From TrEMBL:
GO BP of this protein: organic acid catabolic process
PANTHER family: 3-HYDROXYISOBUTYRATE DEHYDROGENASE-LIKE 1, MITOCHONDRIAL-RELATED, L-THREONATE DEHYDROGENASE
UniProt KW keywords: Carbohydrate metabolism, NAD, NADP, Oxidoreductase
Domain 3-hydroxyisobutyrate dehydrogenase-like NAD-binding, chain residue ranges per copy: 170-288
Record field: catalytic activity: L-threonate + NAD(+) = 2-dehydro-L-erythronate + NADH + H(+)
Span of domain 6-phosphogluconate dehydrogenase NADP-binding: 9-166
Function: Catalyzes oxidation of L-threonate to 2-oxo-tetronate. Can use either NAD(+) or NADP(+) as cosubstrate, with a preference for NAD(+).
Source domain of life: Bacteria
Family, as annotated: Belongs to the HIBADH-related family. L-threonate dehydrogenase subfamily.
Active site: K176
Protein name: L-threonate dehydrogenase
One Pfam family this sequence matches: NAD_binding_2
Length: 309
């Protein structure tokens, strides 16, 4: 095989991790996967992948392991906890850490992997579930050249662009913090704009269409604006994800002494939305919070309120 017999594993088959696993299987790489949800394991199996029972069992058979869990604590657990991946992995196994986490956490975990004889890549990702499923995500990656060389067939299968940010772990995480700052603020701004338009009785579909050809557009306005216009709050990326991610942004900024007033405001909106029972909905549901304050009704709002009651 062109890939030299590389076997890939994915721990965490959420919206992004499952897309990565499906892309790996579609590229012809033997693909192992692990998730707590039976439906995710079934989706992997249907695509030709092999479900595994625990991180250790997966790592014992894989040459490269992508870790797509939620945060640093979960990453540490699946790597170094009871039944963790590292103790069972062969020396030189490549671990690609894809969760959004604080730069110091990414650096610490990568250093512990290196001390255990592994190759570690600090590699958070961006692009959303749809692009993950088609192998078109962007990866912000830092790690040793040997890791990139070994994992190359797998990286090519899951990512359209791999931004190489040097060998020092933490560089990928810092870039992801910048990305999440912008993403979270842009989602909040898109929600604010559409609620203002709704308060004036404007046609939201027309607003969404027009702004995409104007200077005020952003990727998040185009993407999440569709969810608001259609009243579709099925979670692609949930409100609670941005409670976590903007929390990382504001904490990292505070440690650096850099003011982030827009991030602070956006975080407060996502936190309030979560407290109002919207935490597991699509992150565009922050618009529902603003609409409630404005006394306007957005498409899909009544259905969401019925589920929340």
């Amino acid at each position: 095989m062109a890939d030299g017999g590389l076997t890939a594993g994915v721990i965490g088959l959420g919206s992004m991790g499952l897309g990565a696993a499906l892309s790996l299987a579609r590229a012809g790489l033997p693909t192992l996967g692990l998730d707590l949800r039976a439906e995710a394991m079934e989706a992997l199996s249907s695509a030709g992948g092999t479900p595994c029972r625990d991180p250790a069992g997966l790592a014992a058979r894989a040459d490269v392991v992508f870790v797509y869990v939620v945060n640093a604590a979960q990453t540490e657990s699946v790597l170094f906890g009871d039944g963790g991946a590292v103790a069972a992995a062969r020396p030189g196994t490549v671990f690609v850490l894809c969760a959004t986490m604080a730069p110091l956490d990414a650096q610490s975990l990568c250093e512990r992997l290196a001390d255990a004889g592994m190759l570690a890549v600090d590699a958070p990702v961006s692009g959303g579930a749809a692009r993950a499923e088609t192998g078109q995500i962007s990866m912000m990656a830092a790690g040793p050249q040997a890791a990139f060389d070994r994992a190359a067939p797998a990286l090519e299968a899951i990512a359209e662009t791999v931004f190489r940010l040097g060998e020092q772990p933490g560089a990928g995480a810092r870039m992801k913090v910048i990305n999440q700052l912008l993403a979270g603020v842009h989602i909040a701004a898109a929600a604010e704009a559409l609620v203002l338009a709704a308060s004036w009785g404007m046609d939201l579909a027309e607003v969404h269409r027009v702004i995409q050809s104007c200077a005020g557009n952003s990727w998040m306005f185009a993407n999440r604006g569709t969810h608001v216009v259609e009243g579709d709050y099925a979670p692609r990326s949930a409100v609670d994800i941005f409670v976590k991610d903007l929390g990382i942004v504001t904490e990292a900024a505070a440690a650096s002494g850099a003011p982030v007033p827009l991030s602070d405001t956006a975080l407060s909106l996502f936190r309030e939305a979560s407290q109002q029972g919207l935490g597991r909905l699509d992150d565009a549901a922050v618009a529902l919070l603003l609409a409630q304050r404005a006394g306007v009704t957005l498409p899909g709002a009544q259905a969401v309120e019925g589920e929340a009651q």
